[in-house]
């Protein structure tokens, strides 16, 4: 590993010195960017085919200095506006003025996205649908973490899977979390260990945006991208900015039969600084959260876990020349989380305690080199280390402390070439992950040696290795795209060789070679109407996944997950078709997306529920389903902007997920998967500085297994149907102008109608997996933000 990093740094240093800009030209461009007569601040201005770029200041003006001589393409772009380009001729020693007047892109169809084809494209030009979750949506919904914002994209639904600790996952197109690939700046380093609680640990203030691509993406991104990809794009330092905010509130207000409402507050800060010559920049961000445990049914056990976490990170870049750029990312997350009861006692003195202490460190280096003026070559290294101390135990057990270590890295290179109306993308990358999970030894008082009524010695048990796994995936990918008039077609494939080593048992290994093709086509029926078709294959390798590292705990049973020794890889075949309509109808901007999906899963992964042993331990064994499974449905997305002061977004999914043969409880349906769910968000500017927003999530009925003591045979369990939920919230905000900065005061309420689960299991023997519906009861919040980039 150290050799790889060393060689990577040597390569970058050598290459950038060869391509460095040799002399200052004193050729400059200045200007302003306006729209409807108003100057636009913080608009990105760049030179195509180079790393040169800046942004307009608070007054809407910009400058670029020491530019290369000759013909250049100057382009500007900003969220909510159509991008624009101008060709200019630069002469040494001269300064010229170039101004831009941008047209509004209210529906966002011309925004730049990167995830669909691993290449920058306008959304309307992408051969696959890419949905974007922006900071504005996080503000509208008051989502302080990634998990709170993912509900507001078509086909996505966040769910809580543990009544004790709050383990959550995102489902896409009806499939569980491990079917979606989580990316950080396009790199697959979000490990299985981080995935147990990771979505709730990523603060929204560190994200520039989130790009969501539904459907099989394995042809470009590798294993686990069957349902789609979620790409977390971190904030980039392109301007001098700052923001500071405090958000506080109370959860559980007015919920009958519950304990007292509990506090939940966050503090966040962001700042970025760019050098005068725009060659270097740095962004920093920080986040702190403190949430107290909440008891929803008054039985003395928490339904919302106690949580404290701190995040700090930075992103830096330096341009060695006009065609080369080195970027670096770093962030660290520390978290303490605990659910159960007796929070003032040590974990092993509680009746139930599920607790984890996380230390997650992520870093990345990316070198970019423009070639031929149109091509981009990149070399990258990303890594993530996760340290976790855990306790999953009940009835004052000393035997349930654990320690887990994981490390994941991704090393690769990619070349994007352009040939007029066609493009070619190719690359190779290696992803490796180590995971070691163990239960810690303890003083075994029950077997102490006693002589004459006195303890002579107490044996100490040894550490027990639960999982020791190493996985390696070496992938080669390529995609060719070409445009003929109104038709755009792209054909891609990825070849992966994977090897999964189980070092905890006999050192056995499983390996395989997988070819994952992808074919997409887009046709412009009209400038405002596009149709898309796609076919793709994907796979999941037989390795440890996130839910395997979580243990459901009660006083009567303890659920752990493991893989069947004969578990085979799961393979998917996905088909998608969509129509995307975006047009101004009178004075109303109107957008409607209808997207159908069909996925066939061969050797689908399923759980077989075991029988509790004498210690109450139940093993859920992942094996392959006979006959496979199918997931099919349709996603709708509606964007409606009747005026400049009103924005309405909505999405709804109708779907069906079934195994071909009956599984547990003699059912073919997927559990915890509603056949319909959706959302909406509404933002209204009542006055110039006064805004009102509302948002909601709808969750349909679903089947949920129950293994608690409310039934005669808890070991056999019972299948129940949940209620439907409508989680509605409102928020009001007001801006105060302060000499180039803004102070925002806001307040609101989430889940106003307390649409929340009413039949939580109770007591020390409760079934903690019997949890569904919205993650928060009625919550009141308020806060302030100050900065120069507030919405």
TrEMBL record:
Keyword Transport attached: yes
Pfam families: CarbopepD_reg_2 (PF13715), Plug (PF07715), TonB_dep_Rec_b-barrel (PF00593)
Cited InterPro entries: Beta-barrel_TonB, Beta-barrel_TonB_sf, CarboxyPept-like_regulatory, Plug_dom, Plug_dom_sf, TonB-dep_rcpt-like
Record keywords, A-Z: Cell outer membrane, Membrane, Receptor, Signal, TonB box, Transmembrane, Transmembrane beta strand, Transport
Annotated TonB-dependent receptor-like beta-barrel domain residues: 287-752
TonB-dependent receptor plug domain span: 124-229
Gene Ontology biological-process annotations: siderophore transmembrane transport
Bilayer topology annotation: Multi-pass membrane protein
GO MF annotation terms: siderophore uptake transmembrane transporter activity
Subcellular location: Cell outer membrane
Signal peptide (from-to): 1-19
A GO term from the CC aspect: cell outer membrane
Family under the similarity heading: Belongs to the TonB-dependent receptor family.
Protein name as catalogued: Outer membrane receptor for ferrienterochelin and colicins
């Amino acid at each position: 590993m150290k050799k790889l990093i060393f060689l990577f740094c040597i390569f970058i240093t050598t290459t950038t010195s060869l391509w460095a800009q040799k002399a200052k030209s004193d050729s400059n461009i200045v200007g302003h960017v306006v729209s409807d007569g108003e100057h636009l601040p913080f608009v990105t201005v760049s030179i195509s085919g180079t790393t040169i770029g800046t942004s307009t200041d608070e007054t809407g003006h910009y400058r670029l200095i020491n530019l290369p001589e000759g013909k250049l393409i100057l382009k500007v772009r900003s969220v909510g506006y159509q991008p624009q380009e101008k060709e200019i001729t630069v002469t040494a020693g001269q300064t010229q003025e170039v101004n831009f007047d941008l047209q509004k892109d209210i529906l966002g169809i011309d925004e730049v996205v990167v995830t669909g084809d691993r290449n920058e494209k306008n959304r309307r030009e992408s051969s696959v649908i890419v949905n974007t979750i922006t900071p504005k949506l996080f503000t509208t919904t008051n989502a302080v973490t990634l998990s709170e914002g993912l509900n507001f994209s078509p086909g996505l639904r966040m769910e809580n899977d543990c009544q004790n600790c709050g383990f959550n996952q995102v489902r896409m197109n009806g499939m569980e979390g491990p079917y979606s690939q989580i990316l950080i700046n396009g790199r697959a380093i979000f490990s299985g260990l981080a995935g147990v609680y990771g979505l709730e640990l990523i603060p929204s203030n560190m994200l520039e945006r989130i790009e969501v691509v539904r459907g099989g993406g394995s042809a470009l991104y590798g294993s686990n991208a069957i349902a789609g990809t979620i790409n977390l794009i971190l904030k980039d330092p392109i301007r001098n900015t700052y923001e500071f905010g405090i958000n506080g509130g109370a959860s559980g207000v007015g919920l009958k039969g519950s304990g007292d409402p509990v506090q939940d507050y966050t503090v966040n800060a962001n700042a970025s600084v760019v050098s005068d010559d725009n060659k270097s920049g740095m962004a920093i961000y920080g986040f702190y959260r403190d949430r107290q445990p909440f008891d929803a049914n008054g039985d003395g056990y928490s339904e919302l876990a106690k949580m404290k976490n701190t995040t700090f990170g930075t992103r830096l870049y330096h341009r060695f020349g006009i065609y080369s750029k080195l970027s670096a990312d770093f962030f660290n997350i520390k978290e303490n989380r605990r659910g159960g009861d007796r929070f003032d006692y040590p974990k092993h003195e509680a009746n139930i305690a599920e607790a984890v202490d996380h230390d997650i460190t992520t870093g990345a280096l990316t070198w970019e080199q423009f070639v031929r003026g149109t091509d981009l070559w990149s070399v990258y290294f990303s890594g993530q280390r996760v340290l976790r101390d855990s306790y999953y135990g009940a009835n004052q057990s000393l035997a349930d402390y654990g320690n887990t270590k994981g490390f994941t890295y991704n090393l690769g290179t990619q070349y994007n070439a352009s040939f007029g109306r066609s493009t070619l993308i190719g690359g190779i990358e290696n992803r490796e992950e180590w995971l070691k999970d163990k239960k810690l030894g303890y003083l075994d008082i029950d077997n102490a040696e006693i002589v004459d009524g006195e303890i002579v010695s107490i044996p100490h048990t040894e550490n027990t290795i639960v999982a020791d796994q190493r996985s390696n995936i070496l992938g080669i990918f390529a995609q060719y795209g070409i445009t003929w008039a109104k038709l755009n077609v792209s054909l891609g494939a990825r070849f992966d060789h994977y090897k999964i080593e189980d070092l905890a048992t006999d050192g056995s290994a499983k390996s395989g070679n997988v070819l994952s093709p992808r074919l997409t086509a887009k046709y412009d029926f009209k400038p405002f109407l596009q149709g898309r078709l796609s076919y793709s294959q994907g796979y999941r390798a037989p390795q440890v996944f996130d839910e395997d590292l979580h243990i459901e705990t009660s006083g009567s049973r303890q659920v752990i997950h493991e893989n069947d020794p004969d578990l085979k890889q799961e393979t998917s075949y996905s088909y998608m078709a969509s129509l995307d309509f975006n047009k101004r109808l009178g004075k109303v901007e109107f957008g409607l997306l209808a997207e159908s999906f069909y996925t066939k899963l061969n050797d689908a992964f399923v759980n077989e529920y075991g029988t509790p042993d004498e210690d109450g331990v139940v093993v859920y064994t992942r094996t392959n389903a006979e006959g496979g499974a199918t997931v099919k449905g349709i996603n709708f997305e509606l964007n409606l902007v009747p005026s400049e002061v009103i924005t309405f977004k909505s999405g709804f999914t109708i779907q069906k997920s079934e195994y071909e043969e009956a599984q547990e409880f003699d059912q073919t349906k997927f559990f915890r998967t509603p056949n319909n769910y959706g959302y909406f968000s509404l933002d209204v500017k009542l006055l110039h500085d006064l805004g009102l927003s509302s948002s909601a999530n709808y969750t349909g009925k679903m089947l949920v297994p129950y293994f608690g003591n409310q039934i005669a045979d808890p070991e056999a369990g019972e299948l129940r149907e949940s209620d439907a939920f409508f989680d509605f919230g409102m928020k009001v905000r007001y801006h105060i102008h302060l000499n180039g900065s803004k102070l925002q005061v806001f307040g609101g309420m989430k889940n106003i109608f307390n649409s929340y689960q009413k039949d939580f299991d109770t007591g020390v023997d409760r079934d903690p997996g019997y949890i569904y519906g919205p993650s928060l009861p009625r919550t009141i919040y308020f806060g302030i933000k100050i900065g120069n980039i507030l919405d």
